[in-house]
C-alpha cells in the first residue's frame, strides 16, 4: 500500500481568501456582497483582509449568501486565528522557506516560468512568480496551494505545490489573451463547433480555433506543460479577476484523452460555475460534480440518441470510422469511449487514435 504523509502546512488560509475565490468564480461585485451581508464596503474589506472576525451571526450570513455552512466559516475563522496567534510566533521568513520548499523550482525554471537565479536570488525569483503586486504571494501561492491540497486525495502521489504552480502559470498565460464577459449560453451554443475540431489531427490548426471559440464565450483556454509532481490533464479555475480558465496539458497526447478532457472541463464551467476549481488527473477526491462532468462529456461527444449504437459496432474498424463520421468526431474518441465501456480492450484499435507530438504543441505552450 502506498502511503503519503497528510499535507499539513504550518499556515492556514484566511476566510477572506475563500470569500474572494467565491466572489471571483461567481462574478460577484463587492457592492452586492456587502449589501447582502448587511455590511458597508469598509467592513467587507476588513472581513476579507482578516481585520474583522467571523462570529456566529456573520457565519450564518456567509453561509446564506456564499454557500457552504455556518460551521465551515466558523472552523475556518478559528484555524486562521490560531495560526496567527502571538503564541505561535509566526515567522515570515520561515513561512516563505516552507512554501518554496514544496515547489518544483527546478522544473519551473526549465519550463521558463521563472528567471534564472543564483543562491542569493532563488527565493525572490520564486515568490515573484506568485506576485501580482509586491508581497501578495500568499494570496496567489499559499492560498492556491491550500485549495489544491483540500481537493487532493491523500492516498496518491500528487504534489499540491506542483499543481498550484501549474495553475498559477495558467493564470499568467490567460492574461495574455483578450477578455470578454463570461457567458455560459455562448459556450453551450459552441459545443458543435468544438466537437468538429476533434476531426482535425494537427494541434497547431485546431488549438488556436479552440482558443478563439473560448474567447467568444469569455473563457481563456490555455495549454501549460506539467512540472514534476503534477499529473494534471486539465483544470477549470478562475483568475483573481474572475476570468474562467480552461487549462490543458496535452499530458496523454492522444485525441481521445484530450477531447474528453476538453468537454469535461466545459461541463464544469456550464454545470458548476459556482465552484472555484476542478483539476483532472491528480487523484482528486471523488464527487458528484466529477461524475456529472464525465456524463456531460460523454453525451456531448456522442449524442444520447446514438449511445445505443456504440455497443453494436463490435471490433470492425470501418464501422467505427463510419460511426465517428456520423457523430462528427474523430474515430479515436469512439475507440476511447468503447474502451472505457469495456467494449474494447485497451490494446485494441489504438491505431485509430491520433497521437500528438510535443513539437506540435510547443508553439502555443510558452
Q: Which runs of at least 5 residues are low in confidence (pLDDT < 50)?
A: 1-12
Q: What Rg is obtained from the alpha carbons, in whole angstroms?
A: 22 Å
Question: What's the rounded overall pLDDT mean?
Answer: 84
Element-by-element helix/strand order:
HHHHHHHHHHHHHEEEHEHHHH
Give the % helix: 40-55%
Number of helices in the DSSP assignment: 18
Counting helices, strands and paired strands, the structural category is mainly alpha
Number of strands: 4
* First and last CA, distance: 38 Å
In what range is the share of β-strand residues? under 5%
Overall shape: globular
Number of domains: 2
Oligomer designation: single chain
Arrangement of strands in the largest sheet: 1-3-2-4
The biggest beta sheet, please?
A: 4 strands, mixed
Task: Describe this entry's structure for a reader.
This protein has 366 residues and is mainly alpha-helical. It folds into two domains: 1-90, lambda repressor-like DNA-binding domains (434 Repressor (Amino-terminal Domain)), CATH 1.10.260; 169-364, no CATH class. It has helices at residues 15-25, 30-36, 41-49, 56-66, 70-83, 92-101, 105-110, 122-129, 137-151, 160-174, 184-189, 191-197, 203-216, 255-271, 288-301, 317-327, 331-340, 358-361; strands at 220-223, 234-238, 244-248, 277-280. A four-stranded mixed sheet has the order 1-3-2-4, sandwiched between helices. A hairpin with a 5-residue loop joins strand 2 (234-238) and strand 3. The radius of gyration is 22 Å and the shape is globular. The protein starts with 14 loop residues before the first helix and ends in a 5-residue tail after the last helix. Residues 1-12 have low confidence and may be disordered.
